[in-house]
Amino acid sequence: MKKKNTVLIFGITSILVLISVQVYIIKGIWQQKDQLFAISYTIHSREGVYAITSGTATDGFDTVRMILDHYASTKAIEELHSAKNADQIVTVKKDILDYFTKVVNQEQDLSALLSSYFESRGFDKNFKCRIIVNSLELIDTDTTVIYKKDGIANINSDRKAPFDISVSSVLVRSPWFVGNNYRFHFDYFIDFSDKNRQVWEETSLSLAMAILSILIVVIIFMITYRNLMEERRLSNLKTDFIDNMTHELKTPLSTITVAGKTLEMPQIRNDDSKILETAKLIGKQSVHLNQLINMILEISMWERTQFQLDKKTVDIEEVMNDVVDSFKGGGGNNSTISQKYDFKGAKIDLDVVYFTTLLNNLLSNAVKYSDKVPVIEIEGFTDNDNIFIKVSDNGIGINKLDQKHVFDKFYRASTGNIHKFKGLGLGLYYVKKIAEAHNGDVAVNSKPGKGSTFTVMLPTIHN
Ligand code: ADP
After folding, report:
1. 312-459 — its CATH code?
2. Is the pTM of this model over 0.85?
3. Is any atom of ligand 1 closer than 6 Å to the C-beta of 244?
4. Is beta strand 375-382 parallel, antiparallel or unpaired with respect to 336-342?
5. Whose CA is nearest to atom 7 of ligand 1?
6. How many whole angstroms from 246 Cα to the centroid of ligand 1?
7. How do residues 131-178 score in pLDDT, each as one tens digit?
């Protein structure tokens, strides 16, 4: 159990490590693609700006400059002068700054020019632009600076950029506008709305490979783990079987040994009836021993060769009556056995010897796995194609989990190798094999504490 958990923990940890490594690698690839995108668009846009300025003799800010010149000389300075108190001055300064920023944003033509340049080159033409003001100075007619703001922090502290100035935002221009009454410095950034999709597309192959490799590792781990557990289960079953078999063989052997010693005693040798009793005991135990050994030998033979059935067409009801009668005669351990048949004279092809073993195994289990006086009901009926034999008991029952495995070789329900109920875990395996060899099947239905019903199905013959 401890080893099982260690394997599971080790496996899951390895998978988690693999996932973390893959996530780390994919993140690296993403960042690299993101930066490559930014670098390539920095180059494209610088080339674009160069082509625009040299081809059209405009830098895309002519209108901006005109409006700002006019605004600075006519309105801005006047408004500053007419502000009466400190509060008004603050408000006017803020308005001026807002106006400058708004004019650059709204009146610039660079975005449109760049967009058509990108389109003509087959690049992505959809981008957002953002103006970040670096500094602004208003200069009075007597050349004194009456308003000065430096640094983005000062100017934009109360505003959020519509996009983050991230590593992939491309700084295209950083111009200084110098008019008669102002000096203005700002940055013009562009950012591509399609960037994420493009970067995803380029990263998707690596991502798919990473997911695939994780899936393969998970599947391999699951298969290996399942095989390991199955092997462990089989090895435990075998160990249990050896324990049980040793115990089963030891019981008749020690009885025979004790009986042999008894026969050596002088007082027994003179008593004919005691000699006979001991000889019978030895005989009975030898038969039991022989049966056990034959059972094991037979099963190991089945593993190597196919079932050799000696089938005869029989009336199933007659066979059932014979087997049940001889089971009762062989001492059904005070059990009550009732029979109810409705076979409608069905005939089936049957190896009677194997079928006897099948029914005996079911009956002896019904007696064995009982903690009270066993009450066994045998029911038989037919439909057109099959006959059904149900053997029900009032025994200890079998829980749901064990029901799945009771027909497995060596399997013994939770009793394991506890010797309260003797057995080798072969009886029901035998039952299933025999039913299958007749093209039939067997199933169990049981409730712990209430009892079990085993249903055998065998095909009938059609005339
Ligand atoms: P064995 O009896 O030698 O253990 P079987 O293959 O006959 O092996 O049965 C497998 C297991 O199924 C048993 O160990 C027992 O736990 C359970 N079992 C079989 N028949 C019954 C039954 N009638 N009632 C309760 N448990 C049963």
Report:
1. 3.30.565.10
2. no
3. no
4. parallel
5. 427
6. 18
7. 888 888 888 877 777 777 765 433 333 333 444 445 557 888 889 999
